[in-house]
Write a structure and sequence with these properties.
Layout lengths: L2 E3 L18 E11 L4 E7 L11 E5 L8 E5 L8 E7 L7 H4 L7 E5 L16 E7 L4 H7 L2 H6 L2 E8 L6 H10 L6 H4 L3 E7 L10 H7 L16 E6 L2 H13 L13 E3 L6
Parallel strand pairs: 8-9, 8-11, 9-10, 11-12
Antiparallel strand pairs: 1-2, 2-3, 2-7, 3-6, 4-5, 4-7
Helix pairs in contact: 6-7
Length: 276
């Protein structure tokens, strides 16, 4: 199981160790949840002036150096949320995550003032079904989009895939999806319109296999009344490792879908900000 560190209202906000860089928000950590020794999520306060579209990412860092390290993080909370949520990997020698994984409620997290990204519904042309294909922490932007009413207003059906090595690594996605039907804002919209496909690649689970294998074999589409991606009815969002991005991109292009962008919406989009 995972453990959660909740905000202690009596605790003072930790003072930053270094001056706050220009064009940055300094926000307080509200809660931290550790799922495994590799994955955790955290929530921070949201600046009143900060606006973003569900599915976008922002640069975050810590006030632990004169020139702090910043990395791109998808915002996992929807655009209407009063707080900002992030889902992160832990890397023992990572320039940022070796420190970020140790944050506790009351600490300060830095955030650049502007968000951006391609995993937004505006970058897709209208269609009946939306596919969200994720591996690992690539689930984060979909956690945002799944909780946004606009997603359900623009698509009749949503299929979200979540592929990790072990069952414990699926916990974050399982939790987000499990709470959707009870969400007072979108619960009624989700009913009967969501398909969640969680798979593992190492630990034995009800459904196993890499998402690329499941696409190529047709197993991913079993139960949906189709044999593959349909350019007319399907739109696809992809987020995960570089290898997965390239492989799934090739498969959806083979199916006849065209890559879109904010400037030119089309049938599928890929987020490349977290690789390379």
């Amino acid at each position: 199981m995972y453990n959660t560190a909740l905000l202690d209202t009596a605790q003072d906000t930790a003072a930053p160790a270094f001056p706050i860089p220009a064009n940055c928000h300094a926000e307080r950590v509200v809660s931290v949840t550790h799922y495994t020794d590799r994955l955790f999520s955290f929530r921070i306060t949201r600046p009143q002036s900060f606006r973003f579209r569900s599915g976008e990412f922002v640069m975050i860092g810590l006030p632990n150096a004169e020139k702090p390290v910043f990395r791109a993080y998808s915002i996992a909370s929807p655009s209407w949320d009063d707080e900002l949520e992030f889902f992160s990997i832990k890397v023992s020698d990572g320039p940022l995550t070796q420190h970020l994984q140790k944050i506790v409620p009351g600490d300060t997290v830095l955030m650049r003032q502007k968000s951006t990204g391609t995993l937004v519904v505006d970058a897709l042309t209208p269609a009946r079904r939306l596919w969200m294909i994720a591996t690992g922490t690539g689930f984060a932007p979909f956690a945002s989009l799944l909780r946004d009413p606009e997603t359900w207003e623009k698509f009749d059906e949503v299929v979200v895939t979540n592929t990790c090595r072990d069952l414990a690594e699926l916990a974050y996605g399982d939790t987000v999806v499990g709470k959707l039907r009870d969400d007072p804002l979108i619960g009624e919209l989700v009913e009967g319109r969501l398909t969640y496909i969680a798979t593992t690649t190492r630990e034995t689970s009800p459904r196993m296999g890499r998402v690329t294998t499941l696409i190529e074999s047709g197993e991913l589409f079993s139960g949906l009344g189709q044999s593959g991606f349909d350019p007319e009815n399907d739109r696809v969002m992809i987020c995960g490792s570089l290898a997965m991005l390239n492989d799934v991109k090739a498969l959806v292009e083979k199916a006849g879908l065209t890559e879109g962008s904010n400037a030119k919406p089309a049938e599928f989009v890929v987020e490349r900000a977290f690789v390379g």
